[in-house]
Specification:
GO terms for molecular function: DNA-binding transcription factor activity; transcription cis-regulatory region binding. This protein has 196 residues and is mainly alpha-helical. The protein is built from 9 helices and no strands. Helices cover 74% and strands 0% of the residues.
Protein backbone atom coordinates (compact mmCIF):
# COMPACT_ATOMS: atom_id res chain seq x y z
CA UNK A 1 0.00 0.00 0.00
CA UNK A 2 2.84 2.39 0.88
CA UNK A 3 4.62 1.73 -2.42
CA UNK A 4 1.58 2.94 -4.36
CA UNK A 5 1.24 6.02 -2.18
CA UNK A 6 4.94 6.88 -2.56
CA UNK A 7 4.77 6.50 -6.34
CA UNK A 8 1.76 8.79 -6.55
CA UNK A 9 3.55 11.31 -4.37
CA UNK A 10 6.51 11.37 -6.76
CA UNK A 11 4.36 11.64 -9.91
CA UNK A 12 2.14 14.46 -8.66
CA UNK A 13 4.84 17.17 -8.41
CA UNK A 14 6.01 16.34 -11.95
CA UNK A 15 2.44 16.56 -13.25
CA UNK A 16 1.95 19.85 -11.41
CA UNK A 17 5.13 21.26 -12.99
CA UNK A 18 3.95 20.21 -16.45
CA UNK A 19 0.52 21.73 -15.86
CA UNK A 20 2.12 24.95 -14.60
CA UNK A 21 4.40 25.12 -17.66
CA UNK A 22 1.44 24.52 -19.97
CA UNK A 23 -0.57 27.22 -18.26
CA UNK A 24 2.37 29.67 -18.49
CA UNK A 25 2.77 28.88 -22.20
CA UNK A 26 -0.94 29.52 -22.66
CA UNK A 27 -0.68 32.87 -20.84
CA UNK A 28 2.36 33.87 -22.91
CA UNK A 29 0.47 33.01 -26.11
CA UNK A 30 -2.59 34.96 -24.94
CA UNK A 31 -0.44 38.00 -24.13
CA UNK A 32 1.13 37.89 -27.60
CA UNK A 33 -2.30 37.60 -29.26
CA UNK A 34 -3.63 40.47 -27.13
CA UNK A 35 -0.71 42.68 -28.19
CA UNK A 36 -1.16 41.81 -31.86
CA UNK A 37 -4.96 41.74 -32.10
CA UNK A 38 -6.40 43.25 -28.93
CA UNK A 39 -8.15 41.64 -25.99
CA UNK A 40 -11.23 40.89 -28.08
CA UNK A 41 -9.23 38.48 -30.28
CA UNK A 42 -11.02 35.16 -30.82
CA UNK A 43 -10.19 32.53 -28.23
CA UNK A 44 -9.49 30.10 -31.09
CA UNK A 45 -6.55 32.37 -32.10
CA UNK A 46 -5.15 32.09 -28.58
CA UNK A 47 -5.65 28.32 -28.60
CA UNK A 48 -3.85 28.04 -31.96
CA UNK A 49 -0.95 30.21 -30.75
CA UNK A 50 -0.65 28.12 -27.59
CA UNK A 51 -1.02 24.82 -29.44
CA UNK A 52 -3.95 23.72 -27.27
CA UNK A 53 -7.64 23.07 -27.76
CA UNK A 54 -10.41 25.52 -26.87
CA UNK A 55 -11.47 23.23 -24.03
CA UNK A 56 -8.08 23.64 -22.36
CA UNK A 57 -8.44 27.41 -22.32
CA UNK A 58 -12.00 27.32 -20.99
CA UNK A 59 -11.03 24.74 -18.35
CA UNK A 60 -8.41 27.14 -16.97
CA UNK A 61 -10.23 30.41 -17.72
CA UNK A 62 -14.03 30.09 -17.93
CA UNK A 63 -14.47 33.74 -19.02
CA UNK A 64 -12.49 36.24 -21.07
CA UNK A 65 -12.17 38.39 -17.93
CA UNK A 66 -10.54 35.45 -16.12
CA UNK A 67 -8.03 35.11 -18.96
CA UNK A 68 -7.26 38.84 -19.06
CA UNK A 69 -6.69 38.96 -15.30
CA UNK A 70 -4.45 35.89 -15.46
CA UNK A 71 -2.39 37.35 -18.34
CA UNK A 72 -1.93 40.62 -16.47
CA UNK A 73 -0.86 38.90 -13.25
CA UNK A 74 1.45 36.54 -15.15
CA UNK A 75 3.19 39.48 -16.80
CA UNK A 76 3.50 41.34 -13.49
CA UNK A 77 5.03 38.22 -11.92
CA UNK A 78 7.49 37.74 -14.79
CA UNK A 79 8.58 41.38 -14.53
CA UNK A 80 8.96 41.09 -10.75
CA UNK A 81 10.98 37.87 -10.98
CA UNK A 82 13.28 39.38 -13.62
CA UNK A 83 14.63 42.05 -11.24
CA UNK A 84 16.59 39.83 -8.83
CA UNK A 85 17.71 37.57 -11.68
CA UNK A 86 19.10 40.54 -13.62
CA UNK A 87 20.81 41.88 -10.51
CA UNK A 88 22.52 38.53 -10.03
CA UNK A 89 23.68 38.16 -13.65
CA UNK A 90 24.35 41.70 -14.94
CA UNK A 91 27.85 43.20 -14.91
CA UNK A 92 26.67 46.15 -12.78
CA UNK A 93 23.57 47.08 -10.81
CA UNK A 94 22.96 49.97 -13.24
CA UNK A 95 23.02 47.51 -16.18
CA UNK A 96 20.47 45.38 -14.32
CA UNK A 97 18.30 48.46 -13.76
CA UNK A 98 18.46 49.38 -17.47
CA UNK A 99 17.49 45.86 -18.54
CA UNK A 100 14.68 45.71 -16.01
CA UNK A 101 13.29 49.07 -17.12
CA UNK A 102 13.27 47.72 -20.71
CA UNK A 103 11.20 44.76 -19.55
CA UNK A 104 8.95 47.11 -17.62
CA UNK A 105 8.39 49.16 -20.80
CA UNK A 106 7.50 45.96 -22.68
CA UNK A 107 4.99 45.14 -19.94
CA UNK A 108 3.51 48.65 -20.01
CA UNK A 109 2.95 48.54 -23.76
CA UNK A 110 0.94 45.34 -23.25
CA UNK A 111 -0.82 46.82 -20.24
CA UNK A 112 -1.89 49.89 -22.20
CA UNK A 113 -3.36 47.50 -24.75
CA UNK A 114 -5.53 46.12 -21.94
CA UNK A 115 -6.32 49.53 -20.45
CA UNK A 116 -9.89 49.86 -21.69
CA UNK A 117 -10.84 46.45 -20.35
CA UNK A 118 -9.02 47.00 -17.07
CA UNK A 119 -11.03 50.18 -16.50
CA UNK A 120 -14.32 48.30 -16.80
CA UNK A 121 -16.47 47.58 -13.79
CA UNK A 122 -15.48 43.93 -13.45
CA UNK A 123 -14.77 43.26 -9.76
CA UNK A 124 -11.77 41.08 -10.60
CA UNK A 125 -9.99 44.02 -12.22
CA UNK A 126 -10.18 46.22 -9.10
CA UNK A 127 -7.29 44.52 -7.33
CA UNK A 128 -4.90 44.43 -10.30
CA UNK A 129 -3.44 47.90 -9.81
CA UNK A 130 -2.64 47.15 -6.16
CA UNK A 131 -1.09 43.83 -7.23
CA UNK A 132 1.04 45.68 -9.79
CA UNK A 133 2.28 48.18 -7.17
CA UNK A 134 2.84 45.56 -4.46
CA UNK A 135 4.88 43.29 -6.75
CA UNK A 136 6.89 45.81 -8.81
CA UNK A 137 7.73 48.75 -6.54
CA UNK A 138 9.86 46.60 -4.18
CA UNK A 139 11.77 45.14 -7.16
CA UNK A 140 12.47 48.59 -8.61
CA UNK A 141 13.49 49.77 -5.12
CA UNK A 142 15.96 46.88 -4.82
CA UNK A 143 17.50 47.74 -8.20
CA UNK A 144 17.74 51.46 -7.40
CA UNK A 145 19.29 50.78 -3.99
CA UNK A 146 21.89 48.42 -5.49
CA UNK A 147 22.85 50.95 -8.18
CA UNK A 148 23.01 53.76 -5.60
CA UNK A 149 25.15 51.64 -3.24
CA UNK A 150 27.54 51.01 -6.15
CA UNK A 151 27.77 54.77 -6.68
CA UNK A 152 26.29 54.51 -10.18
CA UNK A 153 23.17 56.62 -9.63
CA UNK A 154 21.86 59.25 -7.26
CA UNK A 155 20.64 57.92 -3.93
CA UNK A 156 17.52 60.09 -3.61
CA UNK A 157 15.38 58.23 -6.16
CA UNK A 158 11.98 56.74 -5.37
CA UNK A 159 10.92 53.61 -7.22
CA UNK A 160 7.27 54.66 -7.48
CA UNK A 161 8.24 58.03 -9.01
CA UNK A 162 10.54 56.41 -11.55
CA UNK A 163 7.93 53.82 -12.51
CA UNK A 164 5.29 56.53 -12.80
CA UNK A 165 7.59 58.58 -15.04
CA UNK A 166 8.31 55.58 -17.26
CA UNK A 167 4.59 54.84 -17.43
CA UNK A 168 3.78 58.41 -18.43
CA UNK A 169 6.40 58.29 -21.19
CA UNK A 170 4.82 55.11 -22.57
CA UNK A 171 1.34 56.61 -22.92
CA UNK A 172 1.94 58.33 -26.29
CA UNK A 173 3.19 55.13 -27.93
CA UNK A 174 -0.27 53.99 -29.05
CA UNK A 175 -1.51 57.20 -30.63
CA UNK A 176 1.51 58.54 -32.53
CA UNK A 177 3.64 56.32 -34.80
CA UNK A 178 6.50 58.86 -34.62
CA UNK A 179 6.55 58.76 -30.81
CA UNK A 180 9.41 56.63 -29.51
CA UNK A 181 8.68 55.83 -25.87
CA UNK A 182 11.67 53.51 -25.56
CA UNK A 183 14.06 56.29 -26.64
CA UNK A 184 12.54 58.70 -24.12
CA UNK A 185 12.75 56.11 -21.34
CA UNK A 186 16.42 55.49 -22.23
CA UNK A 187 17.06 59.23 -21.81
CA UNK A 188 15.26 59.22 -18.47
CA UNK A 189 17.27 56.25 -17.17
CA UNK A 190 20.55 57.74 -18.47
CA UNK A 191 19.70 60.87 -16.48
CA UNK A 192 19.77 58.84 -13.25
CA UNK A 193 23.54 58.30 -13.53
CA UNK A 194 26.00 60.17 -11.40
CA UNK A 195 28.39 62.36 -13.37
CA UNK A 196 31.82 60.76 -13.70
Amino acid sequence: MNDGDDGAGRAAPSQRKDARRNKEALLDAAAAVFVASGVEAPVRDIAAAAGVGLGTIYRHFPTRADLIIAVYRHQVDACAEAGPALLATSPTPYAALEQWINRFVDFLVTKHGLAAVLQSHNVGFDTLHAYFIDRLVPVCTQLLEAAAAAGEIRSDLEAYELMRGVGNLCIGEESDPRYDARRLVELLVAGLRRPR
